[in-house]
Amino acid sequence: MSKRLPQRASEWLKRDKPISFYFEGQKYQAYEGDTISSALWAAGETVLGRSFKYHRPRGVLSLANHDVNVMLADGTDTNMRGDVLPVQDGMQLTVVNTDGGVKNDKKRFIDAISSILPVGFYYKAFHTPRSLFPFWENIIRKSAGLGVVNFNYPRDLKRKLHTHCDLLIIGAGPTGLTAALMAAPHGLNIIVVDENAQAGGSLSYDMGGSDESAKRLAELLAELAKYPNVTLRTGGYAAGYYTDHLIPIVETTGITKVRAKAVIVASGAFEQPPVFRNNDLPGVMLATAAQRLLARYATKPCESAVVFAANKQGYRAAMDLLDAGVTVKAIVDLRAEGEPCSLVDAIKSRGVAIYNGACVYEVLPAANKFGVKGAVICSYDEASAKPLLHDRFTIACDGIIMSAGWAPAAALLYQAGTAMRYEKSAEQFVPAKLPAGMFAAGKVNGIFDLAQRLQDGARAASEALAYLGKQVPTVTVDRDYIASPSHPYPMVEHPKGKNFVDFDEDISIKDFVHAAQEGFDNIELMKRFTTVGMGPSQGKHSNMNAIRILARIRQLPVERIGTTTARPFFHPTPIGHLAGRGLHPHRLTTLHGWHEAHGAEFTDVGVWQRPAWYRRAGLEKQQAIYEEALAVRKAAGMIDVGTLGKLEVRGPDAAEFLERFYTGSFKTQKIGRTRYALLLDEAGVMVDDGIACRIAEDYFYITASTTNAAAVYREMQRWLQIWQLDVGLVNVTGAYGGINLAGPAARGILSKLTLRPLDDASLPFGAVCDTEIAGVPARLIRVGFVSDLAFEMHVPAGSTQHVWNALLENGVAEGLRPFGTDTQRLLRLEMGNHLIGQDTDGLTQPFEAGSDGAIQFAKPFFIGQRSLQIIARKPLNKRLVPFTLSEGYQGETINECNLVIGTDGNIKGRVTSIAFSPTVGRFIGFAYVDPANVAEGAAFNIRTDSGSLVMARVAATPFVQLQSEA
Amino acid sequence: MTFIQTSPVSHAQHHAHPVMGSLHGMEIALEFGTPASQQAQAAVAGVAEFSAFTRFAVKGAGAAEWLGAQGMELPAAANSWLMQDSTLVLRLGNSEYLLEDQFVAGHASRLAQGSAPVGAKLYPVARSDAALVLSGQHALSILAEICALDVAAELANNQRLLMTQVANISVTLLSQTLNGKTLYRLWCDGTYGPYLWHELTAMAQEFGGGPVGLSFYFK
Fold first, then answer.
1. In a domain, B212, yes or no
2. Is 0.90 exceeded by the ipTM?
3. Per-residue pLDDT for A699 more than 70?
4. Which of B98, B124, B150 is the last residue of a domain?
C-alpha cells in the first residue's frame, strides 16, 4: 500500500519528474528527489535490508546517513546507503549481505541461534582443535564483510581540490545559517557546508505541528542569498579536522580541502534510540526519521503509531504525524513527570493517550518480522531502570516512533583537541575549552531550543568575527533547560533480549553486561570486545547508549566513563576519493627518450626512473645483463649516471665543513683529486657515500647516491645552520647530466673526444679535472666503482644527449654498449664494492661493513664520531665479507636475505648481495658472517629458502682481474 | 663544435608531434596545432614550455652586491620579482637570484657569457629548469588541485612569487601579464619537467585545453 502523501510545501520531491527503478528485481516508481529508502517506503516496502550479524530484517532507522543495514549494490558500486542516496531512473538495486534476497535471506536462521553467538564468541571458539581452524576460518571469512568488491570498478577521477576561506561553518541548520548571516555583512569569504541535499537542517523537517520552521528557513535562505561572499555547499560532509583548520569536505565529485581562518561547528546532534526488545524491526524508527519522511519525502512512516518518547522531540513528531493523518495511538513517556511543554495539551486534545513513567516493553513483530503489529506497554521505574510488568497491556499499531535523546556530532571538535565536559542538565557532552579559532554552536553545544539555537549561532559568529579582528558586540546565550533533551538511561531490559544498542553489529544490552563481567569494563576495551561503534555508522547512534550502560554497570557517572577516540575520516569515504588524481612525481634524465627508444627496461630508483637493462633480440633478461657486463670487461660500456646527487660546497670553510660532515679527511686533499666520502648519522650508522672532488681551495664538488641525494643535501643544510660556517651549498643534481664510461676500451674512445690527456700519469685514478668533451664543458673524474678503468663525465643537462651520442658514434666500433643498473650492480659486485642500502641496513655501522679505513678518528669531530667511539669498545656481532660458492654450483638458488648459519645452528648473519658472474664463472656475493670467521677461504653455511645448507667461502676482492694488472 | 641542447621536457612532448625549432641553442616546441586551435587551448587551459630562455643565477650573502655592481636592479623584498629591460629578475628567498631573459637576449645572457662571478659569499648556481606556462580561464582551477596555497590571493600583489609545492614537487610560481593575458609561470628542476608537463597537460585537456607552442606567445 502506498504511503505517499499529497504534495507538501516542505517536500524535496520533483513531482513533475517521475522515475522508475528496480529493487531486488521488482520495479518501483519514485520521484526525482527521493532517496532509495524514501521511494521504497512510499511504495509500501518495509524490508530494505538485513542486519550484519543476525540477518534480521531492517527498514528505516534514521534516514540521516546512519541506516547502515540498508546497504545496496547497483551492479557497479556497492555498499551505497539507501537512506540518503538519491534514487535514479533505471537503477537496478540489490541488498548486500543476503543469501537468497532480502526477503528470503537463507542466513536468517542465525537470528534463531543468536543466543549461542554472543559477542566475543569468535575470540574463544574455533581455536581448538587447531586442525579445524581452517574450516571455521573459511566459513567466517565468507560470512564477514559487506558487499562484493568489484575488481573491474571503473577509474572515475575524483578531484582533490584546495580552497580557502575566512570562515567555515559546518552545518546549514538554523544555527549555522544564523551564524553565516551574522558574519556575512563583514565582507568575509564564508563557506557553509551541510551533508544534506538541501540546507535547513531541522527546519526542513521538524515542524512540530506548525509552519514556524518552514517560514524561518525561507527567511534565512532568502536573506543569505543576498550575500555573494557566502558560499553554501550542500551534499558534502566535513570529514575531519587537521592542524590549522584544514577540513576536507567530501562531495560526490571529490574532496575539497578547505583551509579556514576560523571554523564554527554547528553540526547538530544524532538522535539516539531508546533500547527495548525488537527496537530494530521495520516500522520502528527515530522520531526525526519519521519527520524527515513526512516533510521531505511526503511519505507516512506508518498508519497507526505508538510514540515512545523521553523528550520534547517525541511530542513534536507526534504533532507532525497527526497533521499528516497518521493515527497516534499513544505517547509512552519514559519520564515519570512527563513532558512539561505546551504540546501536551494540544496532543491530548486530539485524543491521544499519554502514559508517563511508562515504556515500550517489547514490540510485537508482524509475520516474518517484516514489520510491527503491536507494542506491549508497561510502567517503568526510572530509578532502577526496570520495567514494571504488573500493568502491561498491548496496543495494536504498525509503527513505533522513538525519541529518547541525542549525541553531539562532535567528532571534528574532538579531533581539533576540544576539551569536553558532561552537561548534566542536558545529559550530553558539550565543549568546555575550544582550540583557538574554533567555535561550537547549537545542538553540538548542548542547546536545543530553537530560539536559543539561533541566538547561539549569533554568539558563535560574534566570537569568530572578534577572533578575525572585527569589531562586533558580544552576544550571550543562557542555557535554559525546562527539561533535558536527553534521557539519562533510556534502556528497557527484557529477559529475551533483542533490545539492540548497536544496529550495525546487532549488539544488545546483555552483550555489554557480559563484556563487563569478563573484565572489559573500560570504554575502549568494551568497544573492542563488543565491537560497539566499530560498524559503518561508527557508533553515531550507539556510542552514547554504550557509555550510559557501562556507567550504570560500574556505578559511575557518565563523565567518568569518557568517550572513545574520534578519528578522521568522520564518515566512510570511498577509496577513489582518497586517491584523487594519484600524483606520483618522478624524475627523468634528458637521456630518457634515448633509453626508451633503445629498448631500456626501466626500474624505479628512488624518485628516478633508470634503465635496468636493455632488451636485445633473442636474449632473456639475465643473458642480456651478462652481455652488458661482459662488454664492460672486454671492451667498454656506458651508463647514464645523471641521477647521482651532485652537490657543491663552496666558501673559505668548505674543507672544514666536509671534515665535520663526512668521516674522512678533506683539509689535506689536493686540488684535482677525489676522496671517498662516507656519511654517518649521529648513531654511527652508515647513511650514504660518494666522492668529494676538490676543484679549488674553496670549492668541493660532491657526489651522493641516487636515492639519498635529497636527504644528504637537507642534512648539509641542517648542519650548516648549526655550525654557522662560511660555506655556500648548491644542489646541482638536476643541472648536470652524468655518463660513466668503463672498460678497457674506455680511454681510447674518450680520447677521440677530448684534448685532455687521459693516460694514468696525466689523469690517474682518483683525479678530477674540468675539460671539454665533444665540445661541451665537462667535469671528468677517474672513478673505479664498476671497473678500475672508468671515466665519469658531468656535463650540463641539456648537453648530455650530445655527449652520449658522440661517445656511441666513436665507440660502437670498439664494442661500446650501454648498460643499466642491474648490470651496474653485478659489475660493482665483481669489483668487490659494497653498496650502502643494499649491503647495509638501518643499523649497520662502518666496522661491520669493513669500512674502518674510511674513518679518521683523529679528527676533532665528525657526525657519528662519539657513537663510533663507544661502538669500537664493544665486540663486533657480524662482519660483511665477500664470498663465492663452489665452482660449478648448480644447487638451489640462494637469495638475498638468506641466512648465514653457524656451526652451532644459530643465525650469524645474512646474504646481502649474490649474483652469477659470467666473468668469474661462479656465484659471488656479500654476506654478514661471524666476525671470528672472516679469513680468506673460511667456510660458512647459507640456509636456502627450502632450509637446506649451502657452503660458501670468504673470498678476496676484487673478484675480477683489474685492467691495471691485465 | 656546435650542437643543440635538449629541452628537459621534450621527452614528454614527442607523442603530441609538435613543430620543433631552435631558440638560444635549445630545441623547443613551437607549435602543437594550428594558430586557431592554439589560441583556443591557451584561452581555456594552455600549457607551454619556455625552458629555452637563457638563465643566470647566483646565491649567497654577496650576491646582491655583485649583481648590483653588474648593473642589475633587484627586488627589494624576498620572494618577489621585477622586470629589468627584457630580463625577469627573481629574488628567491633572501639571497638567491635568478635572472631569465624573455625570448630575446638580455642581462642573463650578458652575465652568463661574462667571466664567472667571483666574490665573498657569492656562489654561482647552475640551473637546468623546466620553465612552464599555464594560461586560460581554468588555470586557477588546475592550480587549486595541485597547489595547497591560495594562489590567486597570494599573487594578488603582482610582484610576488611563491616557492611552493605544485603536484608534489618544488616549484617557483608567479603570475605575469603577456600579450595582455595573465599567465602563471612555473619553474621546476628540469628532471621533473616531463612529469609536471604530463600532469598539467592532462588536467588542461580535461577542461578542453592542452599544450601550446612557444610561437603562440612570441612570433
1. yes
2. yes
3. yes
4. B124
Whether residue A330 lies within 8 A of chain B, CB to CB, comes out as no
Residue among B128, B145, B168 whose CB faces A585 most closely: B168
Residue with cell 537512506: A83
Q: Residue A219 pLDDT more than 80?
A: yes
Chain B: give the shortest CA distance to residue A581, in Å: 9
Q: How far is A835 from chain B (nearest CA, A)?
A: 24
* Contacts with B121 from chain A: Cβ below 8 Å: 651, 726, 728
Range of the domain at B120: 55-124
Q: Which of B11, B121, B146 sits opposite A593 (nearest CB)?
A: B11
B74 falls within a domain = yes
Across the range A833-862, mean pLDDT stands at: 96
Chain A residues whose CB is inside 8 A of the B3 CB are: 774-776, 799, 802
Q: Which residue ranges form the domains of chain A, and what is each CATH number?
A: 1-150 (3.10.20.440), 489-575 (1.10.10.1100), 592-642+735-828 (3.30.1360.120), 645-731 (3.30.70.1400), 875-966 (2.40.30.110)
A61-104 pLDDT, tens per residue?
999 999 999 999 998 889 999 999 999 999 999 999 999 999 99
B137 and B202 belong to one structural domain: yes
Q: Say yes or no for a CB contact (<8 Å) between B5 and A726.
A: no
Residues B102 and B187 in one domain: no
The pLDDT tens digits for A231-279 are 999 999 999 999 999 999 999 999 999 999 999 999 999 999 999 999 9
User: Do B118 and B203 belong to one domain?
Assistant: no
CB pairs under 8 A between A and B: 113
Quote the CA–CA distance of A802 and A782 in Å, as a whole number: 21
Peptide bond into A129 cis (omega under 30): yes
**Dist CA A192 CA A796 (whole Å):** 52
Instruction: Tell me the shortest Cα–Cα distance from B81 to chain A, in angstroms.
Output: 21
pLDDT in tens, B44-54: 999 999 999 99
Q: CB of B116 within 8 Å of any CB in chain A?
A: no
Residues B47 and B138 in one domain: yes
**Touching A: B residues 7-66, CB under 8 Å:** 7-8, 10-11, 14, 26, 59-60
Residues of B in contact with A651 (CB under 8 A): 121, 123
| Residues B134, B212 within the same domain | yes
**Measured distance CA(A797)–CA(A150) in Å, rounded:** 46
pLDDT of residue B1: 55
Instruction: Give the CATH number of the domain where residue B177 resides.
Output: 3.30.1360.120
Q: pLDDT grade, residue A143 (50/70/90)?
A: confident
Kindly state whether B191 is in contact with chain A, defined as any CB-CB distance less than 8 angstroms: yes
pLDDT in tens, A566-597: 899 989 898 999 999 999 999 999 999 999 99
Asked whether the beta carbons of residue A583 and residue B168 sit closer than 8 angstroms, the reply is yes
Q: Is B125 on the interface with A (CB under 8 A)?
A: yes
Over its C-alpha atoms, chain B yields an Rg (Å, rounded) of: 17
Cβ distance A736 to B128 less than 8 Å, yes or no, reads yes
What distance in Å separates residue A434's CA from the closest CA in chain B? 26
User: Chain B closest CA to A585's CA: distance in Å?
Assistant: 6
Domain edge (last residue) among B124, B157, B172: B124
Task: Grade residue A129 by pLDDT with cuts at 50, 70 and 90.
Answer: confident
Q: How far is B218 from chain A (nearest CA, A)?
A: 22
Is B47 among the domain residues? yes
Candidates B128, B145, B169; nearest CB to A798: B128
* Share of chain A residues as helix, strand and coil, in percent rounded to the nearest 5: 25, 30, 45
Same domain, B38 and B66: no
SS (H, E, C) chain B: CCCCECCCCHHHHHHHCCEEEEECCEEEEEECCCHHHHHHHHHHHEEEECCCCCEEEEECCCHHHHHHHCCCCCCCCCCEEEEECCEEEEEECCCEEEEEECCCCCHHHHHHHCCCCCCCCCEECCCCEEEEEEECCCHHHHHHHHCCCCHHHHCCCCCECEEEEECCEEEEEEEEEECCEEEEEEEEEHHHHHHHHHHHHHHHHHCCCEECCHHHCCC
